[in-house]
Predict the structure.
Amino acid sequence: MPQIVVYSSDWCPYCSRAKALLAKKGVAFEEIRVDGQPQLRADMARKAGRTSVPQIWIGDHHVGGCDDLYALERAGKLDPLLR
């Protein structure tokens, strides 16, 4: 199973939704909270090319945000990425 990394914020409803979907899938993920951590947020923005949270990686694949994760699920493409 590939490593899953989720950059998130404590008060972000999209972060909660994304983490809930991953939990429903039964996969472990590393959560990196960027609240009050400007260097972590800057690292995330540099890697993702986006400043919003969540930003999600599955292995080396940058999924994007919550909407992107759910779009993969609807298209039937999330499970193969998680294998």
Summary: The longest strand covers residues 4-8.
